[in-house]
Amino acid sequence: MNIVLLGAAGAGKGTQAAKIVADYALTHISTGDIFRKNVTEGTPLGLEAKRYMDAGQLVPDEVVIAMVKDRLAQPDCEAGFMLDGFPRTLPQAEALDSALLSMDKALDAVVAMEVPRDILMQRLTARRQCRACGSIYNVMGLMPKSEGVCDSCGGEVYQRDDDTVEAATKRLNDYDAITSQLVPFYSEMGLLHSIDGNRSVDAVFADIETILQG
Ligand code: AMP
Which end of the chain is more exposed for a tag (fewer CB within 10 A), N or C? Predict the structure, then answer.
């Protein structure tokens, strides 16, 4: 099974992705996580991506598309994958389509998580994340037992540079102006499943399970 998780920043894609991966044997491909790893490691890709990411801007299509094509060609994607944070633009969606076609693969479902904008803003600015394993925390809710230290791996829990009010506003504006075009795109392909993401983690996951089992 090959799926795409679609949703604005803060919609809960990362949280649901972790649950999906635990239950279904899918390879999780988060373009944001790949970029952050490259930034931490100081690779040329990381250095290029960082200046866009810190400002809350999208990394150019050609950079992201090349990176995802490379990732999809790796053996662990054979048994199925879940894309999280990609595609984010129409050219990315079209490039994904033709890349999959040339690999004799196809998408089975696109799950779009919908959350009102004011809630997204609250979630983004309250979010904290583990620099090492990506675990997600929230200053309004669950925080690590020991301040600044990840419960899962002991890594540093920090606020992402792109979760400031200014960068979060830019990311949400980009979602409305650019990424939301993917909703009609995948709807016309008969792949789109929209769900209400403004509910508990378990309620959202129950909907996702129904879609993936259908
Ligand atoms: P995320 O963790 O998915 O919110 O991604 C963090 C940042 O990485 C975004 O704000 C972008 O700067 C960059 N990024 C991740 N995925 C993409 C993509 N598909 N296209 C362009 N930029 C991306």
Answer: C
